[in-house]
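Entry 14. Ran structure prediction on the chain below.
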Amino acid sequence: MLELKQINVFYGDMQALWDVSLKAEEGKITAIIGSNGAGKTTTLNAISNLIRIKSGIIEFENERMDLLPPHKIVDFGISHIPEGRRLFPFMTVLENLILGSFNKKAKKERAKTLEWVFELFPILKERGNQPAGTLSGGEQQMLAIGRGLMAKPKLLMLDEPSLGLAPILVKQTFETIGKINSEGVTILFVEQNVRQTLELAHFAYVLENGKIVLQGKGTELLKKKEVKEAYLGR
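Output, structure tokens:
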């Protein structure tokens, strides 16, 4: 569904990504793991064209995406849930959700999609008229995911969805990602919670210093000595 072919990204004179190539297969969960500063967020921002690539190609369903503005990428069926959630804190939960369904296809199915989001996250229905900024951290993460789903994405990209959450909420977040995928949405996400990520992902990439250094099935990477030593403390 999504393919990056040898993309290079710079911040000024500093290179952040070096010939990064990866794929996200339709119907699967693909993960990118790595430490802080490895280039995970930069990779997602490049796909959304929030940062322009210097060279390489990004394709989605065999259509070239790296030349399109971000709002056109959303129209193609990619939702990007950024690190830190980026909600509109003074708007209500319902208003935040509705803002996620601004493209033509999503508008037509807004009511149906909203019911689906409320099935996934019943607490959001209860909090519908509450300002988003007054929600707990876990509830805000649910709202951020829900808003992304309101765009009716084919591919959902999540940047550190478990960041700052209590352990029980981390578990719920990973379960929700699996449930969304089981209902037909392809997932690409980046995470530092390595063990749970690799247990969930069908395929994963390890990014270090802007370069892909390992790739394989999630459960296979869990067994690799390099992953155990670098990310699992053993």
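Residues 86-152 form one domain. Will compare against last week's run tomorrow.
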